[in-house]
Amino acid sequence: STVAALYPAHRCKTVYLVRHAQGFHNAAEESDIIDHTSPALLDAQLTPLGWSQVDCLREHVTKSGLAKKIELVIVSPLMRTMQTAVGVFGGGNYTDGVSAPPLMVEGAENSGRQPISSLNCPPFLAVEACREKLSVLTSDKRSSITRYRTLFPAIDFSLIKNDEDVLWGPDVIETDESVVARGMNLFDWLWTREEKEIAIVTHCGFLYHTLNTYGKGCHPTVAEELGKV
């Protein structure tokens, strides 16, 4: 049975869930012949189409006023999610004559992109809990935090304990239940944060399993909407 509930607005948070733009591994999936374990797909970055998708979403969140509302951006520590996050919610080419570490350095990963400012935008926090479901796919293995810090100097990596990726393995296949558990733990953790308006830039599999679990106690129409990622 569905139970109705009311909550005062001051006890609620608004969470904006964003799936990363197209990565090279996504483009490769459209080919009939693909080796998902190829080193070429390791920690796949965004394609040119992916960057176009980022630019379109940035325009939307800016014109809608959403960009000014968001107080924190939580991002999965993988190349494609961080590129999406800083491209959509970062400070763009804003400088105002002030020197500050960029969110992304110029041409990071041969992207051909201009540097992205950390000014005039919310803080960015990398969190392993919203990574993609772990599998044998090389695209889901992250690079070292040392390397990321050179490419994304203004992203906060302080919550990540290990420099190298100790979660991914060539024979590690995470269960759906494990993904759901860390997804729900992440949402529980959000209640410890002071921010009320939070964006999370993450992955399709993570969103699918987490949201479907939350939808189980909802009206069927709401559950169906939550399952669309």
Automatic annotation (TrEMBL):
<dbReference type="Pfam" id="PF00300">
    <property type="entry name" value="His_Phos_1"/>
</dbReference>
<dbReference type="InterPro" id="IPR050275">
    <property type="entry name" value="PGM_Phosphatase"/>
</dbReference>
<dbReference type="InterPro" id="IPR029033">
    <property type="entry name" value="His_PPase_superfam"/>
</dbReference>
<dbReference type="GO" id="GO:0005737">
    <property type="term" value="C:cytoplasm"/>
</dbReference>
<dbReference type="GO" id="GO:0016791">
    <property type="term" value="F:phosphatase activity"/>
</dbReference>
<dbReference type="InterPro" id="IPR013078">
    <property type="entry name" value="His_Pase_superF_clade-1"/>
</dbReference>
<comment type="similarity">
    <text>Belongs to the phosphoglycerate mutase family.</text>
</comment>
<protein>
    <recommendedName>
        <fullName>Phosphoglycerate mutase-like protein</fullName>
    </recommendedName>
</protein>
